[in-house]
Amino acid sequence: MNLATHAILISGLLLLLGPIYLVFAAATQTVQEVNQIPPNLSISSHFWENISEAWFSRDFQSKFINSAIVASGVVIGKIVIACITAFGIVFFDHRLRMPIFWLVFITLMLPLEVRIVPTYAVAANALSPFQAILDWTGVSWLINAVSGVELALEWNMLNTYTGLIMPLIATATGTFLYRQFFLTIPDELVEAAKMDGAGPLRFLRDVLVPLSATNMAALATIMFVSGWNQFLWPLLIITDPAHEVVAVELRSLIPNANTTGGGIPKWNVAMAASLLVMLPPIVVVVAMQRWFVRGLISTEK
Question: Which domains does the chain have, with CATH numbers?
């Protein structure tokens, strides 16, 4: 059984590392070498040249900063929202807590593509729902009749960091992870905190947050990778190059997207850029691996 298990693990590892090796090999070759038929799978000596061209030809420095801001904002927002939501569901006894939890949980079955149109409409004007309520209740008409001012609420989040981050911070996965951990908190600990005079917010800050550090690290690792790799949402709402992220900028290096006529596609530069984009998530996962595993499997109270 152990032999079969190790064989499966090694096979999976090879399947994972195979494409990465192909990307790395292509990133070390010249244009002529990378376009050979049959493909050249050997390692060449032009790695740093391709890395330099990929970095400077598309202003990757600013794009990396944008992606880091977006990924960090998504991580912080998801952790805070998930923690507060799970805290309200677990530690406040009210009739709607389970229906609310299941409403949050079933959003896992709604991919971003399903929500993309209404989310874009909200990002184009985040105050449009409030405007609709004021119009429907007649408040807008009353204000216009009394003061002569036409009430028009507008908050455009397109081409902003806020627009990139805010629609992504709600997380059913994070809420579920926090809820499962909070359910393991002994009732005696909750009662002891009440006897010490700790209110809900103090109990959350001084007791639950320190205890959930490993869960927080696990969630942060998952969400950083997710936020860094966001492509569809930034592609949709960002038209200003100053706010573009690396995943979208990588598309511009795909051969034939910008190649005209009989130009030779620079797959070597595209693969070098792919390695650059892969590096931050890999570093985060490796650095947080121990905390990530403990956060997912730990049952300590």
Answer: 61-251+270-297 (1.10.3720.10)
